[in-house]
Write a structure and sequence with these properties.
heterodimer, A: alpha+beta, globular, B: Substrate Binding Domain Of Dnak, Chain:A, Domain 2, 0% strand
């Protein structure tokens, strides 16, 4: 499974990590829903750390698309909501 | 989060569906990639410019801070605790500004590093796309090319979206910092933080210190004359005298004027 962390690049993550990551991901989503910025920051950091720890970076010249795309580590809740709206991610 | 990953692919496929011969989209996309590469490199340069501006301001404020420390020491040595206190109060305002600038500097440096890496990644992918584009154009018919192009596109589109977002975010941050840097420039110019001695030949603290020290110089000279020692009369003939009379410029002051 290929995961992109926006602003950092892509990593190959073993499929058996998916459940762990999903759990971390659910924590992120619930803090977004409740608008808990501090909780969101902690949850997002845990999720990204999990991906970085278990993943292997893809070669820079790889042209693979990702299965999952995660927000930048310093994204705010508002930014992530905006990304989830599907607006403006691809320029032009 | 799954929804986020579909954003990229949906758009990439749409661009492809609109083309009559999918191979034509390869060159167009490659042009867009080169433009994005230029954009991200310009982004790196813009952030670096902002960072340097902050470094410059930080140096200016550090000079002021040092000067205020000197003034406080001088005032204290002359028994003027009130003046020393005033100088140190101003210094603490300058110090807090320096702290803010340090934080901004670190943030900009982080953006600069991120964008530099993003531009390296994009460069590698654009190069890889170019190779694949040439192969596809040379080897496959329009119908066969469809899948190959789709594969090449989805990865690069995603990268373009990522880099585009990174550039946008860096620009937003840089704009915020520039607005704050402008405010600091105004603050420095207004003299609110400032020992303005380099600009106006003396703020109130240094004027008072100068007045006091010239007063004590006068007293000292007067005392020397009253003593009328032979050394004082012979002094101008001593070989070291001309050098001693050359005014010594204050290097700090000179630097500030420039």
């Amino acid at each position: 499974m290929i995961v992109r962390i926006l602003g950092e690049g892509q990593l190959e993550v073993a499929d058996d990590q998916l459940e762990t990551l999903n759990e971390l991901d659910r924590a992120v989503e619930s803090t977004i829903e409740s608008g808990d910025e501090a909780g969101f920051r902690a949850a997002l950091t845990a999720l990204l750390d999990g991906v970085r720890r278990t993943g292997t970076p893809l070669a820079e010249d790889s042209l693979e698309d990702s299965d999952l795309i995660l927000p930048p580590f310093d994204a705010t809740i508002d930014e992530v909501r905006h990304l989830l709206d599907g607006e403006g991610l691809i320029p032009g | 989060m799954k929804r986020m990953s579909t954003i990229f692919r949906a758009k990439a496929n749409k661009a492809l569906d609109n083309a009559e011969d999918p191979r034509e989209t390869l060159d167009y996309s490659y042009q867009r990639q080169l433009e994005m590469l230029t954009k991200v490199r310009r982004g790196v340069a813009d952030v670096a410019t902002s960072r340097k501006r902050i470094e410059l301001q930080r140096n200016q404020l550090q000079t002021q801070s040092d000067k205020l420390t000197e003034q406080a020491q001088k005032a204290l040595s002359m028994g003027r605790e009130d003046l020393a206190r005033e100088a140190l109060t101003r210094k603490s305002a300058v110090t807090s500004q320096i702290g803010d600038l340090n934080a901004q500097h670190d943030q900009l440096q982080g953006e600069e590093e991120k964008l530099t890496l993003a531009s390296q990644r994009l460069q590698a992918k654009v190069e890889s796309f170019r190779t694949r584009k040439e192969t596809i154009k040379a080897t496959y018919t329009a119908a066969e090319a469809q899948t190959r192009i789709g594969e090449a596109f989805s990865g690069i589109s995603e990268e373009m979206g990522d880099v585009g977002l990174a550039v946008q975010r860096a620009e937003d941050k840089t704009l915020q910092m520039q607005a704050r840097a402008g405010a600091v420039d105004e603050l420095i110019a207004s003299g609110a933080l400032d020992d303005a001695s380099s600009i106006n030949r003396g703020d109130d603290i240094s004027r008072e210190l100068e007045a006091m020290s010239s007063q004590s110089d006068v007293e000292a000279e007067l005392a020397a004359l009253k003593g009328s020692s032979p050394d004082a009369i012979e002094a101008p003939e001593a070989p070291a005298a001309p050098a001693a009379e050359t005014p010594i410029e204050d290097p700090v002051e000179k630097g500030q004027q420039g």
